[in-house]
Amino acid sequence: MSAAENIELKPIGFVKTKAIGKEVKNKGNVSEIVFREDLAEALEGIEDFSHLFVIFWMHKISKEERKTMKVHPRGRMDMPLLGTFSTRTPYRPNPIGLTMVELLDVEKNVLTVRGLDAFDGTPVLDIKPFDKKDVAEDAKVPEWWMKLEKER
Amino acid sequence: MSAAENIELKPIGFVKTKAIGKEVKNKGNVSEIVFREDLAEALEGIEDFSHLFVIFWMHKISKEERKTMKVHPRGRMDMPLLGTFSTRTPYRPNPIGLTMVELLDVEKNVLTVRGLDAFDGTPVLDIKPFDKKDVAEDAKVPEWWMKLEKER
Q1: Minimal Cα distance from A10: which residue of B?
Q2: B38: three-class secondary structure by DSSP
C-alpha cells in the first residue's frame, strides 16, 4: 500500500441526538448510537462494559478545512498557534473523532450513551470497550492544555 | 449521508518497526511513525505531550475477516463467544486500531513512540494528544476481561 492509496470505510451506525450546535459539547448529553441492523449480533456482550471509546467521522468538516495545518486551541488568540495534531481540533487531515462515553443502555442495535460530543447524523466508524488499565497515570500535557482544562 | 455511502481516508503516515509477528504486541516496543512530509507543520507542539492516542488502519485484515460477527477473545475457547464490538479483536467491520503510546522523540516528520502494537507499514489515520482527564477512573469491565488482563 502506498501513501497515494485511499482507505474506504463504511459507517457501522449513526448518532442520534437532540443536541444542536454547541450543546453537543455538554458532557451530560445523552445520545443514541443506532447501529446497522446487520451488525446487532456484533454487539453481544457490550452491556458488561460501563465505558466505551467511540470513533466517529466528523462529516461536517469540509475538504478545505481538512487542509488546516495550525490552529489556536478552541480558536482562542491567547493560546499558542499549534500544529493540528497537537490539539483536538476537528480540522485535521482525517476528521476522526474519538470520545470516551458512558454506556447507559443496550436495546438490540441501539446503544444509549452519555458524553458523546457528536452531531445528529454523525457516522460512527468503530466502538471499543474501555479499560482504565489502557491509560497512563503519569501522562504529561503542556501548560496551555492544563489552563483550558481548568476553565471547563 | 446515507448508510450506503463510503468514507475515504488518506493515511497521514506509516508505521516503521523491526518487530514482526507476535512481537508487535510487546508493550516495550519502540516504533517510528513516519508522517507525510507535507504534514510536518501539523506536528508543531506535539513534543510537549508525553502520551498520544494513535489511530491506525489494520491493513492486513481481509474483506472476509471484516465480516466476522463473533469471536472468542484472543481465540481462546475458555473465553465466552462475544460480539466483535465487545472485544479488541482486529476482525471488525472497520479494522481501526486505537493504541495509547508513549512519545519518546520528535524529529521533523518522524515520531518515535513506545507501545504501538502495529505492524511495519501500517497506515496511520490520526493521532491525538492523550490526557488522563479524558478517562473514567471507575470504569467497569466484565470478568473475562479482567481474567485476561491478569494473565498479561
Answers
A1: B6
A2: helix
CB interface of B with A, residues 43-72, below 8 Å: 43-46, 48-51, 53, 55, 57, 59, 69-70
* Assembly ipTM: 0.94
Residue B133 has pLDDT above 80, yes or no: no
Give chain A as a 3 state SS string.
CCCCCCEEECCCEEEECCCCHHHHHCCCCEEEEEECHHHHHHHCCHHHCCEEEEEEECCCCCCCHHHCCEECHHHCCCCCCEEHHHCCCCCCCCCEEEEEEEEEEEECCEEEEECCCCCCCCEEEEEEECCHHHCCCCCCCCHHHHHHHHHC
List all residues 6 or more positions away from A25 whose beta carbon is below 8 Å from its beta carbon: A117
Confidence of residue B134 (pLDDT cuts 50, 70, 90): confident
Q: How far apart are CA A139 and CA B63, in angstroms?
A: 37
Cα(B117)–Cα(B113) distance, rounded to whole angstroms?
11
Say what the pTM is: 0.94
The helix/strand/coil state of B47 is helix
Task: Please answer whether residues B148 and B136 qualify as being in contact, where contact means their C-beta atoms are separated by less than 8 angstroms.
Answer: no
Inter-chain CB proximity A98 and B48 less than 8 Å:
no
Q: Is 60 exceeded by the pLDDT of residue B79?
A: yes
Confidence band for A5, pLDDT divided at 50, 70 and 90: low
Contacts of B146 by beta carbon, 8 Å cutoff, 6+ apart: none
CB contacts under 8 A, A 89-108 vs B, are 92-94, 96, 98, 100, 102
Average pLDDT over residues B136-141: 84
Adjacent-strand bridge partners of A35: A13
Buried-exposed string A97-108: b where 16+ CB fall within 10 A, e elsewhere: bbbbbbbeebee
pLDDT of residue B135: 79
The mean per-residue pLDDT over the stretch B22-36 comes to: 94
Query: How high is the pLDDT of residue A1?
Result: 47
